[in-house]
């Protein structure tokens, strides 16, 4: 039997990262607990080769010393049931805060054969012994455990376990009665046919530093090029791409973005694109873009003579809208890329298209990023709209991610808007392509009003001009429409982004909601006080005018 994959998720303050093997997992954990009174494994990914089981384990300080693990297993490439939980030194009576809660997920694809699915919540006072005893009850009655989640219970010194099972109702009743002899509390949540989608939430970053965990997980290109890429046979160009890829792979949140000395050939390619696009912007780009572009020339060194440095651009964006950029080696998955937007982080390439083809690039390059995307990320309204798309993606099912990626395509990449009775471009794919920037304002493509419900399911080509565009009345109206559409996303929780800590906070208990309400009240008091001062000044100005 081989252990193939393991998920282990929790929020908490990171301490360090280590690689350990199966044999020394417990002894290592006990050693760490001796050195750090409160140690908890919060994130793990497991891979098993022929000889050893490796765990990539991040440790964190929290209120309870424990290490727990759930796993998948495969036997002859067929998925079989394998659930293991190890809780070390779980003797503390303190209850961890909501920030240090953890959640473990595992999926076991077991056919139902006409059986139903039921959900139990059991509360156990002790760790590993009672959990193992509980699982043996399921095994004895031949009930398949499909999914387990655990968290510290509200009852002091206890854990709650949500157990999802496949079986007959009679089996559920029997197990329910037997668990009462072991658990402090047992409850049946539901019983019914298997649902089409799973209840577990896909992993998502909960603090901005978590973006480091996937920023180098690119899908295509980076240092490697396809055979049809214009620079495939150019060894010098390929070496330059490797330099840019290494910068992105080595970058971590909080570091200054390394400055790049671009070659003369690269700068000439930039100049060709820059000159032609700048001529079109006054008549083809939206009002907000044309307001910000001169500011980039003044503050970030935008010109046809030099390619701007990402660090300068990032600092400018932070001052304007709170957005920042970070280097990336190539294309990220839709889920990972959108997650960055949730934290007002835009993953940006540093390499430039091949000099033999300045008017075409098969991938996003620095021309597309800096000329197409960056200017509007400095606009507060557009920045908020972009972040809304990112926030919608956190913890969303795969089918919703696909819809959000399509929404992103038709707005942030290829969006058009109405201003002063004229159609203007605001999408980065348009603003970085002089051919399509002219085409999108003609009568040739079809143009529909922006409606997230319709836009999210529209089809689009990626190698030709778009036959269809969606017209937004304004960034504000697009944002409000997106918010209304987001209410339909199937999620069991809401959350808010805290710009002070750069975290997303789950609004899933009374304590957090109470703190949220307190913050809103403080803001309302500030608004009320400011309005009173405005009224006083207005009255004084009116009195002065009357006396004159």
TrEMBL record:
Keywords noted in UniProt: Iron, Metal-binding, Monooxygenase, Oxidoreductase, Phenylalanine catabolism
Segment forming the signal sequence: none
Residues of the ACT domain: 119-193
GO biological process: biogenic amine metabolic process; L-phenylalanine catabolic process; phenol-containing compound biosynthetic process
EC numbers for this chain: 1.14.16.1
UniProt keyword DNA damage present: no
EC top class named in words: oxidoreductase
Domain of life: Eukaryota
Protein name: phenylalanine 4-monooxygenase
């Amino acid at each position: 039997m081989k252990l193939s994959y393991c998920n282990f998720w929790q929020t908490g303050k990171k301490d360090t990262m280590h690689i350990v093997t199966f044999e020394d997992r417990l002894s290592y954990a006990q050693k760490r607990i001796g050195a750090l009174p409160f140690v908890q494994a919060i994130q793990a990914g497991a891979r098993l080769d022929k000889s050893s089981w490796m765990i990539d384990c991040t440790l964190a300080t929290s209120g309870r010393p424990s290490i727990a693990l759930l796993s998948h297993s495969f036997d002859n490439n067929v998925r079989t049931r394998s659930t293991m939980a190890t809780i070390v030194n779980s003797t503390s009576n303190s209850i961890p805060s909501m920030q240090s809660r953890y959640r473990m997920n595992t999926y076991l694809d077991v056919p139902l054969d006409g059986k139903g699915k039921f959900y139990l919540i059991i509360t156990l006072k002790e760790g590993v012994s009672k959990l193992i005893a509980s699982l043996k009850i399921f095994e004895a009655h031949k009930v398949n455990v499909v999914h387990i989640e655990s968290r510290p219970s509200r009852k002091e010194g206890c854990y709650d376990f949500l157990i999802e099972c496949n079986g007959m109702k009679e089996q559920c009743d029997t197990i329910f009665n037997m668990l009462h002899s072991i658990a402090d509390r047992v409850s049946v949540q539901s019983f019914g046919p298997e649902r089409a989608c799973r209840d577990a939430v896909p992993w998502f970053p909960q603090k901005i530093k978590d973006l480091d965990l996937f920023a180098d997980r690119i899908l295509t290109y980076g240092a490697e090029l396809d055979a049809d890429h214009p620079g495939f046979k150019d060894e010098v160009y390929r070496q330059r791409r490797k330099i840019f890829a290494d910068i992105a792979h080595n970058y971590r949140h909080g570091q200054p973005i390394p400055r790049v000395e671009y070659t003369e050939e690269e700068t000439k390619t930039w100049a060709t694109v820059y000159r032609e696009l700048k001529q079109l912007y006054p008549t083809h780009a939206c009002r907000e873009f044309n307001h910000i572009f001169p500011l980039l020339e003044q503050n970030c060194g935008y010109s046809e003579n030099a390619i701007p440095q990402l660090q300068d651009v990032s600092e400018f964006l932070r001052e304007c809208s709170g957005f920042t950029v970070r280097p990336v080696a190539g294309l990220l998955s839709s889920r990972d890329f959108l997650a960055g937007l949730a934290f007002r982080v835009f993953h940006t390439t540093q390499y430039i298209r091949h000099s033999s083809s300045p008017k075409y690039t098969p991938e996003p390059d620095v021309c597309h990023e800096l000329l197409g995307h960056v200017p509007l990320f400095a606009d507060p309204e557009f920045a908020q709209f972009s972040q809304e798309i990112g926030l919608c993606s956190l913890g969303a099912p795969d089918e919703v991610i696909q819809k959000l990626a399509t929404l992103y395509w038709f707005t942030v990449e290829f969006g058009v808007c109405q201003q002063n009775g004229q159609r203007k471009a605001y999408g980065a794919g348009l603003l970085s392509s002089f051919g399509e920037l002219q085409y999108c304002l003609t009568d040739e493509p079809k143009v529909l009003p922006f409606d997230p419900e319709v836009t999210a399911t529209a089809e689009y080509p990626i190698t030709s001009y778009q036959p269809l565009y969606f017209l937004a009345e304004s960034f504000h109206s697009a944002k409000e429409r997106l918010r209304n559409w987001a209410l339909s996303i199937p999620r069991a929780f809401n959350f808010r982004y805290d710009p002070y800590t750069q975290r997303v906070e789950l609004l899933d208990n009374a304590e957090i909601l109470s703190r949220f309400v307190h913050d809103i009240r403080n803001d309302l008091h500030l608004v009320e006080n400011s309005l009173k001062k405005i009224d006083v000044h207005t009255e004084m100005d009116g009195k002065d005018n009357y006396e004159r």
